[in-house]
């Protein structure tokens, strides 16, 4: 049996990462969670919950954009946690702002996937400007972070009576 080269075996891993980033495997994906949200619920914070649906969706966008920027920009400047990662406003200015945020999440995810799939990508090589981070770690970080908050989005929608059972 012929042993696969690292590049050949990475194709399988990259395909699994792409699927994980796009679909979420055994749970609802981000697009499912944000589909058909009602404008009047975007800014509501259920009792005991410190953030709204809008804040969760915008937080996913901000964080993913930051991870992408970190991966592609050797002059990356670290943002301040948590202030720079969470929107102050409980609701978007309008539905266009909400839809623009969802589209930006999709656009940045696509750009990250293109980075993963590029010929020169090395999943394991530490990023020169980081402290040991590599593309594999950052892909898993995006997937894990988005999945975590996707679950929260669904839970908030259930609490607000706006989720299909």
TrEMBL record:
Protein name per the record: DinB family protein
One Pfam family cited in the UniProt record for this chain: DinB_2
Sequence intervals crossing the membrane: none
Organism the protein comes from: Deminuibacter soli
Domain DinB-like span(s) in chain numbering: 29-153
């Amino acid at each position: 049996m012929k042993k696969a080269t690292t590049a050949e075996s990475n194709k399988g891993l990259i395909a699994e990462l792409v699927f994980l980033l796009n679909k979420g495997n055994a749970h609802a994906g981000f697009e499912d969670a944000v589909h058909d949200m009602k404008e009047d619920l975007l800014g509501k914070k259920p009792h005991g919950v410190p953030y709204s649906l809008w804040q969760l969706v915008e937080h996913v966008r901000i964080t993913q954009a930051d991870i992408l920027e970190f991966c592609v920009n050797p002059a990356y400047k670290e943002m301040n946690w948590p202030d720079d990662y969470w929107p102050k406003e409980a609701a978007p200015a309008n539905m266009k702002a909400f839809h623009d945020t969802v589209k930006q999440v999709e656009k940045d995810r696509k750009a990250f996937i293109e980075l993963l799939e590029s010929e020169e990508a090395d999943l394991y090589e530490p990023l020169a400007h980081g402290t040991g981070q590599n593309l594999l770690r950052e892909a898993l970080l995006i997937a894990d972070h988005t999945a975590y908050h996707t679950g929260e989005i669904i839970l908030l929608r259930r609490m607000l009576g706006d989720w299909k059972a």
